[in-house]
């Protein structure tokens, strides 16, 4: 072996080592970025649950900055999904719809069926809120098909809840109750306490929509309402607490207590307006924090 050939071998070995080290560093950097993005998303999700929208926006913005040049469609889709959840909770349904459609576009040609199912689920709920009931049913069925294939009972439970909300919005209270009764045990076993409390509220509303001479459905409505209140108080769900005033007002009407009903309805309207104003202020504050 000549001296020159030995030099070539040595240079080649250096090049290979340099290449491997560069690739390893790139992979580690990618993993660090992915880990940071997940942390920001988790923080945002927790913030949304506690209605701390300022922190939710800041965390999601930080996550977005990390993936702005990424070619990872699944990563980008996860950010859009988080933003859609945030906008939905802020009652910006048009913006939520735009974000969720971006999510679905990024996910359609990937293997991430779980996240696609979640996107279909949320899109179905958004469509219910903007009174596009037939379209909502289509996307909820798509979500249900995915979760059935994945044997994902937790997300199936949420889909069942949304089907109940859809039927309630369609003024089919008896069908809605069937869905709510089917989903409640699954929500309990999946430890989805917010959805459980929310479902009991919707169920109470559904019972109140069914007239009866013996007040059987009124009694059932009150039972569901009380179960909801117990969970709301245990976990301090402010948003659901405000919604409970509306149901309490409807119960008072059925009990022939017009003054009490009017007072409760006034509390509901006042607290909801204050809550929305508070949310808007937080939203503006968070945006100003991001832009400065």
Please write the string of helix (H) and strand (E) elements.
HHHHHHHHHHHH
Percentage beta strand: under 5%
Tell me the structural class: mainly alpha
Q: What share of residues is helical?
A: over 70%
Q: Specify the overall morphology.
A: globular
In angstroms, what is the radius of gyration? 25 Å
Which regions have little confidence, pLDDT < 50, spanning 5+ residues? Answer: 14-30
Taking all residues together, what is the mean pLDDT?
A: 84
In whole angstroms, the N-to-C terminal distance is: 65 Å
Count of helical regions:
12
How many extended strands?
0
Describe the structure.
The chain is mainly alpha-helical and 292 residues long. It has a domain at 194-292. The chain has twelve helices and no strands. It has helices at 3-49, 53-67, 73-89, 93-107, 113-129, 133-150, 153-169, 173-189, 193-208, 216-235, 238-254, 258-291. Helix 2 (53-67) runs parallel beside helix 12 (258-291), helix 5 (113-129) runs parallel beside helix 7 and helix 6 (133-150) runs antiparallel to helix 7. The radius of gyration is 25 Å and the shape is globular. It starts with a helix and ends with a helix. 36% of the residues are buried. Residues 14-30 have low confidence and may be disordered.
SSE layout:
Blueprint: H1 3-49, H2 53-67, H3 73-89, H4 93-107, H5 113-129, H6 133-150, H7 153-169, H8 173-189, H9 193-208, H10 216-235, H11 238-254, H12 258-291
Helix pairs in contact: 1-2, 1-3, 2-3, 2-12, 3-4, 3-5, 4-5, 5-6, 5-7, 6-7, 7-8, 7-9, 8-9, 9-10, 9-11, 10-11, 11-12
């Amino acid at each position: 072996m000549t001296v020159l050939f030995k030099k070539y071998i040595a240079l080649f070995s250096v090049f290979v080592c340099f290449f491997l080290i560069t690739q390893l560093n790139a992979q580690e950097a990618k993993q660090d970025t992915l880990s940071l993005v997940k942390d920001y998303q988790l923080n945002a999700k927790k913030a949304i649950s506690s209605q701390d929208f300022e922190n939710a926006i800041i965390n999601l913005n930080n996550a977005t900055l990390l993936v702005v040049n990424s070619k990872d469609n699944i990563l980008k889709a996860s950010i859009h999904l988080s933003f859609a959840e945030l906008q939905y909770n802020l009652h910006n349904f048009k913006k939520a719809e735009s974000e969720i459609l971006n999510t679905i576009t990024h996910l359609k040609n990937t293997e991430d069926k779980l996240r696609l199912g979640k996107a279909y689920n949320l899109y179905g709920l958004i469509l219910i809120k903007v009174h596009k009931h037939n379209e909502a049913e289509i996307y909820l069925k798509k979500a249900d098909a995915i979760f059935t294939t994945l044997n994902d009972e937790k997300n199936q439970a949420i889909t069942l809840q949304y089907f109940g909300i859809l039927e309630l919005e369609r003024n089919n209270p008896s069908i809605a109750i069937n869905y709510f009764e089917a989903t409640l045990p699954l929500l309990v076993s999946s430890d989805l306490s917010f959805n459980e409390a929310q479902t009991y509220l919707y169920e109470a509303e559904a019972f109140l929509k069914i007239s009866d001479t013996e007040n059987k459905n009124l009694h059932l409505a009150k039972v569901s309402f009380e179960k909801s209140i117990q969970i709301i108080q245990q976990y301090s769900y402010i948003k659901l607490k405000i919604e409970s005033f509306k149901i309490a007002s409807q119960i008072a009407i059925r009990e022939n207590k017009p003054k009490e009903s009017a007072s409760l309805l006034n509390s509901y309207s006042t607290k909801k307006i204050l809550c929305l104003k508070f949310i808007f202020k937080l939203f503006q504050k968070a945006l100003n924090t991001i832009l400065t």
